[in-house]
Structures are given as C-alpha cells and as structure tokens.
C-alpha cells in the first residue's frame, strides 16, 4: 500500500465496502418497493408508520450491538419487552400509579433484569446463550402471570404520547397551515450541523496525521446524508411532523455512536470482543464490562417494552414475541461479527431499517406472512455471506 | 540390520526462516533412535515433514521409508504406512471413554454402526499390551496424565504401527510413570517396533536409546552410537549447544543500581485444573533498576506460569507470596493493580494473548493505558494517533500507516506493537516472555536494542527465553528454573549453556 493508493476513492471504497454497502442496499430496497407499491412506500403517512413500527427494534438493536460486539448474545429481550409492558400496564391501569413514576421505574426494572442475567454470564462464565434462553422462558412466563392471561389497557394519553405522539409545531402561531414548520426546522439544522461537525473532526485529525477518508468522498457522503435528512423531514412535516419516538431514537443512536466511537468504555468493549485474553492482560476489567453490556441491554429492552405497549395502547401476553430474532438479525445484517469485536451502531440501525422496510413493503404489496419470513431469512443469510466473502477476499 | 527410514537432505523453509537446512537422519529397523536438540532446533518440524503434516512438495529432499521414496500427502497417508506420531500435547477427547478415544476416526464398524462389543474387547487387548489396568469404558478425563499417555500409545498400536514417534512423551510425567513408559519402549523394541524418541531428558535417552541424532539450528550435527555405553550426557550437551555467539547481540554497558527494584518472595501457584500440582513452587527472584535478568528453563518449567501468576493472578489458583517494588509490598491481585504498581507483562503468545489482530496498530498500542489518551472517559483521537506515530518512529514499526490492522504485520513488527503498548503504560519492571519467538534475526536484533535501551533508562527487565544463547547474550544474571522451582542462579560471567543445562538436569 502506497500513499497515493491511500488517497484514492476507489481504494477507500473497497476497504469500507461493508459500511456503505448496507446503506446502498437500504436505498435500493426502498427504491424497489417505491416502484412496486406505486409510490405508497414513501408517502408521508407510510414513512411515519415505518418509524413507529420499527422504533422498538432499533432501540434494542443499539443495545444488542454492544452485547454482540462484546462476544455474547441476548435471547431474552423479546420476553423482557412483554414483561415490562405488562408491568407498566399493571402499575398504571390496575394500581393507578402516575406515568412519571412508572416510566423510570420500568427502566430500572429492565436494567436489573439485564444485570441479573449479565451477572451469571460475566462472573460465572455461563454461556450467554443459555442464561438468556432461560431468561426468555422466565420472563415469558412472568408476563403471563402478571397479566393473568388477559390484555390490560388502555393507557392514559400521556403514556401513549411516548410512542404515538408528534413533536408539536411551536411555530404554528406564526405560520398557519398543516405543514409542521418546527419539525422541518429541526431537519434543516441537523442537515447543516452534521457536515460542520464532520469538518471539525477532520481538522482535528489532520493536525496529527493524514486523514484516511478522501475529501471528495466526504463531500459526497455528507451531501447525500444531508439531502436524505431534508427529504425525510420534509415528508414527515407534511404529515404530522417528527414523531416523538423518532427523537428518542435519534438521541439513543447519537449517544451510543458516541460511546462506541469516542469513549474508553466503547474501546474496551471492542477489545473485549476482539480478544478477551489480550484485553484482560491489558488491565481491562472484562467481567464488569460484560455485566454492563447486559444491564444496558435490559434497560433498552424495557424502553422498547414501554414504547411497544404505548403504541398498542394495551399490554398483551403476546407482546414481544420473537422480537429478539428481529433484533439479532438487524445487528448481523448491519455487519457485526458473531465472534465479537466488530460492528457499528449505525450498521445495526441500518440493518433494522432494512428489515423494517422489507416488512412494510412486502405487506403493502400483499406478500403473505409466510413468504415474508422466507425472504427475510434469505436476506439475513445473504448479508452474512457477503461479509464472509469480503473477509476471505481481503 | 537394515534401514527402515532415511530422510535425506531435508530442507524446509517458512517465509523468512529456514527451519530445516539439509537435515539427514537414518533410522535402523528395530532400534530406539533418539532425536535431541534445543527448543526451536527443528526436531518437531522434521517429524512433521516425516508424518505428512507438511506434505510432499512443501520441502526439499527425500524420505526413504520401507524400501522406497515416499510422498506423503497428509497424516492419514503416513499412518497407513505404519508411521504413527504421538505429540507432546495429547490428542485425546477428555469426555470420551478410553475405547472411544482409541478407535476415534478408525472405528470398528459396519455401515457406520459401531460394533461396541468388538471395540471393547479389542481395547482390552491393547490396554493389556501397554500394561494399563483400566476399564475401557472409563472417561479419559478421569485418568492421570501418565495413563493418558499410555492410551495414546495403545491408540498407536491399534493402527499396525511400524515406526512409532514420541515427541517428549515424559515431559509431563512423574518419575515412576516415565520409567514405566521407557520400559514399554524397550518391550516394543523386543517385539521389533522401531521408535524415534524426542526428549530433553538426557538420562532417559542414555537409558533406552541405541543411537542419537542431534540437530541444532535446523542442521543435523551428529549421530552418536550409544550401544557401546560410552556416550555421556556431556557429549550430547556439547553437540546440542555448541555454536558461536559473536555479534548477535548489541553492545551494552550495564549500569545496575545496587537497590532492588522488584522482589518476589516465596511465590507459589498451583495448576488451575489439577490442584495437587504445584506449578510454581516457592520461587524468590529479584531485579534491580537497569538490570536484565533472565529465567532459563525447558518448556513446562513453570516460567510463564510464574510470570502470569505475578501479573494480576492471570494464571493458577492458590497463589501465595509477596511482591515488593522499591521495598514496599504492592497489590498485584488484578491486572489493573499490577499495571498500577508498575508492572508490565509481554505475553509469550502475542497473537492469542497480546494483540487484538483485527484492530489497528493505534488501538493496540493505547489499550493498556487508555487513560493516557482520554479525558473523563472520552478518547482524544488525535492524541492517540500521535502516540502511535511516536512509537512507530521510535522503535521502527515498519508500516505506512498506524491505522493498519496488526494482522497484516510481520511477526517482528507485531512484537514491536506489543512492546509499544507496554512502553506506553510506563512500567518500572517489564517481564518479557519469549520476546523474540518466531521472528527473524534482524528483528531480533532490534528487539534486543529496545531491551537494552529500557535497562539504560533505569527499568528492570525480566526476560524469559527458551533460547539459551539469547539469555547469555543479553542478561546480567540468569535464574534457572525447572519443575516449578528455581534451581539456582548464575552471574553473566559464570554462565554458559553447559552450566545452565547441568543445573536443569541435576534434578
């Protein structure tokens, strides 16, 4: 490898094919269904639904990414979603507790559930597959016990707002109309902010060493991303504005991207998954880290449970069923490695969106649930084969 | 007597290293032929060539066996011709029974259905032959290492063996188990089976071997005839170690402090799985600032175990003893605390335990001291890169870019990354475990230069190495370790390979 190679866009793309390949795939799939559904796919109302439908998968995929990068897996998240939803319903509907208390309480319960499982994985070295399989059964059973086999609901509106509410248009006093100006403003600010932050990071990097990413590529990347943000916020603004849940998701994605990319905590999790022995011999407390990833996962699963219950406006015994499979599939489609140490937050999010777009698109064109499963399974397999193929070629 | 095996002018090259250079060996039918040499001399490589692990075509030279030139494609091929090799690391499945292990891959079966009565009956016969009184249904994990070794031999016998190769069969055995095994070899000899015995234990070789071939640095040095009983251990040692050592090590004027920088007192540790086995037994060592101290010993002497148990109790159970730095007792019960106390340990196996291969040079270098490149838990990308750049220049890591994944580097450069990682952690004492294993001569010289620089900077260096010339060339003082104990220590001026070997063997 020479310096000139280093700067060529072709070389950069080849070495980062996995990162951008999935984004390209997402866009291709979106376009494919846009045509097949005669434009329904990108209708504002459908786009809004797409985010609402997949919010809980994306929330959990972020946590699952950390667990998988750390070299483990969590099969219990679907059951935890159901359990926490049921718990919230019982607390609010049956016991009349205020929402402002129930939401944090449920998050704490989720963290405790995750911690309890993480304890066995981290400190007793019991395989996570087994611990969380047990957790899956336990919390599925506890959900049934808690609900007594029946659905509990409905929730008060302030609880529902978390999932089905929209950002109010604080500008509508000045500008009349259905168009949500405030939401659009947020989109514009975000689209402007990202390249500025990117440029600052580049400048900082350039002070110490050559920047890997070619400038032309940087410009194209941010132009495309900016346009996408503007386009999506525009569409959403013509409907009801940005959903609250989208804001929550965006914050989570931002926080966890920061943790994984820029903090010692994140670096240590990658080291743990990359080579546990080496990490341990470098003075990293691998047990505590593993424990943390599970506790964090439990909390995010609880959040997903709240969101899901709020969206359905009821807690049902079937809530969360098989969610863990979608979440894990999203993380692997997003480029994480089964053996740990590899994977990106944004990859997991894109993976979840690919699954979500396919679900949504196939439903619109009337593909039965049977064939949907087949196709999703094949896509998961294809994504991982693509990974392995790239790795072998390198 | 006719010749059963002749390996003629075998040369085997790995990228950058000539592991075998024109080696020849002749084994006569029905004899016990011993193969001697230091660690890394090429004994195992030679046996891998013979058994087809390195198939025909990947080496130069000819294997004449049983009357013709052989071109083995793999182990199966050589096994079919009656060449069976028993490796130092036993290849048994612990949770299968003795019978299942013996016939693994070679089951007595018809159409895939195992004939268990026949299997057990045949196992009984084989066990009787090797003198092992155990039920064939006993799980291998439930019998001792000595008996496991016998199961391996029974397994070899199940395959119509003509030439039996044993790679350090007694390395992990107790004295009486070793004796039994050697008796068994003599018995096989009486039955006409030819054996090649690789061993470090010269007294054992003298006891059973008919002839001895000695290899050194990948070359065959001599073949001694021991049948007359006139060969002494000294004769063997002389041929094993005799080489000149001029100019392979950088010059250094030691500047050793009179005060001890680190002291380890009465250190003991037991095997994590076999609590009755003391792997480190009441060891006391020390190192001064500016001093390079070596620990010599054979494989399995307990040197790595000593180092790892000191470094945050990373090995063993029931660890007892004291570590003092600058005269004060320090807590080394976790790796974090050991690092904080000023210790660093460069592992023997850099790929398994030292590096995260899929990560960049930068990531690896800062891993043991992330606090040094972050503020309140947030990493400073730029600082990280400049640290990595700094070490790249300072110790000459050959790479165009510190963002490169370490998996793409050569062994020598990987080792420099590991060293950089520990240098960045700024320790007082560095324990280097086989710091030059598997790297070429040029890179070795560079590593030696770094070690000398560390000593000159007032660090204490403890160097574990299986290459005695390296210890002699580098160290101010050498501890000799065997079977978990320190057998003695030699000052640089009194040390020689013969002296070390004698100290090891005097047990």
TrEMBL record, chain A:
- In which broad location class does this protein mainly occur, judging by the first location in its UniProt entry? membrane
InterPro entries for the chain: ABC_transp_permease (IPR001851)
Extract the NCBIfam families matched here.
Answer: GguB
- The source's superkingdom equals Bacteria
Subcellular localization, per the record?
A: Cell membrane
Keyword Membrane appears in the UniProt entry: yes
Instruction: Please report the name of this protein according to its UniProt entry.
Output: Xylose transport system permease protein XylH
**Which PANTHER family does the UniProt record give?**
ABC TRANSPORTER PERMEASE PROTEIN YPHD-RELATED-RELATED (PTHR32196), XYLOSE TRANSPORT SYSTEM PERMEASE PROTEIN XYLH (PTHR32196:SF32)
Automatic annotation (TrEMBL), chain B:
Q: Please give one Gene Ontology molecular function term for this protein.
A: ATP binding
| Keywords assigned | ATP-binding, Cell membrane, Membrane, Nucleotide-binding, Repeat, Sugar transport, Translocase, Transport
TM region positions? none
Record's Pfam families? Answer: ABC_tran (PF00005)
Q: Which InterPro entries match?
A: AAA+_ATPase, ABC_carbohydrate_import_ATPase, ABC_transporter-like_ATP-bd, ABC_transporter-like_CS, L-arabinose_ABC_transporter, P-loop_NTPase
Q: Give the highest taxon in the source lineage.
A: Bacteria
Instruction: Enumerate the SUPFAM superfamilies for this protein.
Output: P-loop containing nucleoside triphosphate hydrolases
CDD domains named among the record's database cross-references: ABC_Carb_Monos_I, ABC_Carb_Monos_II
**Where is each ABC transporter domain found?**
5-242, 262-503
| Annotated NCBIfam families | GguA
Q: What is this protein called?
A: ABC transporter ATP-binding protein
Q: Which organism is it from?
A: Thalassospira povalilytica
């Amino acid at each position: 490898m020479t310096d000139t190679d280093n700067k060529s866009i072709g070389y950069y793309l080849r070495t980062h094919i996995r990162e951008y390949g999935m984004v390209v795939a997402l866009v291709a799939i979106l376009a494919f269904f846009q045509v097949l559904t005669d434009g329904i796919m990108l209708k504002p109302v459908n786009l809004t639904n797409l985010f609402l439908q997949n919010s809980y998968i994306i929330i959990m995929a972020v946590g699952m990414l950390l667990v998988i990068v750390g070299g483990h897996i969590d099969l219990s998240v679907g059951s935890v979603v159901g359990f926490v939803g049921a718990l919230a319903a019982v607390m609010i509907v049956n016991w009349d507790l205020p929402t402002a208390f129930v939401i944090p309480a449920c998050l704490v319960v989720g963290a405790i559930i995750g911690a309890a499982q993480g304890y066995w994985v981290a400190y007793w070295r019991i395989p996570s597959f087994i611990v969380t399989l047990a957790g899956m059964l336990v919390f599925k059973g506890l959900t049934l016990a808690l609900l007594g086999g029946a659905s509990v609901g409905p929730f008060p509106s302030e609880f529902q707002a978390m999932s089905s509410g929209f950002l109010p248009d604080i500008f509508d006093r000045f500008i009349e109309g259905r168009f949500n100006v405030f939401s659009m403003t947020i989109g514009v600010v975000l689209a402007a902010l990202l390249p500025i932050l990117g440029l600052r990071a580049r400048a900082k990097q350039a002070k110490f060493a050559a920047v890997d990413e070619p400038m032309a590529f940087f410009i194209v990347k941010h132009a495309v991303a900016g346009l996408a943000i503007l386009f999506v916020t525009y569409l959403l603004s013509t409907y009801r504005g940005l959903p609250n849940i989208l804001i929550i998701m965006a914050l989570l994605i931002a926080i966890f991207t920061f943790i994984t990319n820029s903090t010692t905590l994140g670096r240590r999790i990658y080291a743990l998954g990359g080579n546990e022995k080496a990490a341990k011999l470098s003075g990293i407390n691998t047990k505590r880290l593993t424990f943390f990833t599970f506790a964090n996962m439990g909390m995010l699963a609880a959040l997903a449970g709240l969101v899901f219950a709020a969206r359905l406006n009821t807690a049902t015994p079937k809530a969360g069923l098989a969610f863990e499979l979608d979440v894990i599939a999203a993380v692997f489609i997003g480029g994480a490695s089964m053996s740990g140490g590899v994977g990106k937050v944004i990859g997991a999010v894109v993976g979840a969106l690919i699954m979500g777009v396919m679900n949504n698109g196939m439903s619109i064109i009337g593909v039965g649930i049977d064939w949907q499963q087949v196709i999703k399974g094949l896509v998961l397999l294809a994504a991982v084969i693509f990974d392995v193929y790239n790795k072998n070629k390198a | 007597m006719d010749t059963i095996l002749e390996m003629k002018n075998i040369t085997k090259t790995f990228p950058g290293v000539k592991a075998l250079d024109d080696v020849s060996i002749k084994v006569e039918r029905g004899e016990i032929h011993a193969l001697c040499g230091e660690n890394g001399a090429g004994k195992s490589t030679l046996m891998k060539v013979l058994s087809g692990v390195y198939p025909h075509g990947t080496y130069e030279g000819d294997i004449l066996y049983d009357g013709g030139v052989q071109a083995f494609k793999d182990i199966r091929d050589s096994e079919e011709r009656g060449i069976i090799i028993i490796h130092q690391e036993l290849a048994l499945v612990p949770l299968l029974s003795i019978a299942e292990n013996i016939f693994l891959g070679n089951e007595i079966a018809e159409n895939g259905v195992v004939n268990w009565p026949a299997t057990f009956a045949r196992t009984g016969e084989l066990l009787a032959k090797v003198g092992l009184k155990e039920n064939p249904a006993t799980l291998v994990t439930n019998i001792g290492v000595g008996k496991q070794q016998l199961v391996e031999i029974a397994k070899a016998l199940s395959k119509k063996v003509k030439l039996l190769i044993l790679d350090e069969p007694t390395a992990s055995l107790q004295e009486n188990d070793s004796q039994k095994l050697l008796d068994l070899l003599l018995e096989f000899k009486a039955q006409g089976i030819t054996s090649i015995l690789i061993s470090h234990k010269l007294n054992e070789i003298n006891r059973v071997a008919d002839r001895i071939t000695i290899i050194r640095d990948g070359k065959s040095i001599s073949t001694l005839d021991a049948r007359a009983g006139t060969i002494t251990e000294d004769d063997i040692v002389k041929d094993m170690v005799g080489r000149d050592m001029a100019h392979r090590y950088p010059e250094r004027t030691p500047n050793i402090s009179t005060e001890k920088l680190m002291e380890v007192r009465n250190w003991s540790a037991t095997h994590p799985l076999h609590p009755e086995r003391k792997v480190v037994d009441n060891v006391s060592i020390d190192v001064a600032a500016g001093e390079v101290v070596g620990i010599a010993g054979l494989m399995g002497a307990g040197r790595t175990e000593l180092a790892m148990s000191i470094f945050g109790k990373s090995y063993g159970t029931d660890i007892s003893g004291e570590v003092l730095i600058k005269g004060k007792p320090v807590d080394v019960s976790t790796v974090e605390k050991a690092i904080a106390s000023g210790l660093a340990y460069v592992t023997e196996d850099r790929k398994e335990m030292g590096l995260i291969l899929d990560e960049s040079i930068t990531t690896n270098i800062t891993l043991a001291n992330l606090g040094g490149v972050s503020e309140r838990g947030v990493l400073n990308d730029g600082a990280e890169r400049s640290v990595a750049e700094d070490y790249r220049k300072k110790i000459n890591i050959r790479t165009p870019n510190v963002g490169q994944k370490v998996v793409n580097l050569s062994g020598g450069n990987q080792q420099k990354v590991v060293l950089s990682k520990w240098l960045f952690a700024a320790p007082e004492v560095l324990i280097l475990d086989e710091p030059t294993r598997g790297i070429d001569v040029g890179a070795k010289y560079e590593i030696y230069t770094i070690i000398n620089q560390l000593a000159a900077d007032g660090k204490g260096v403890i160097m574990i190495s299986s290459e005695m010339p390296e210890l002699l060339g580098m160290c101010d003082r050498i501890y000799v370790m065997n079977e978990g104990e320190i057998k003695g220590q030699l000052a640089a001026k009194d040390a020689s390979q013969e002296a070390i070997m004698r100290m090891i063997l005097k047990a």
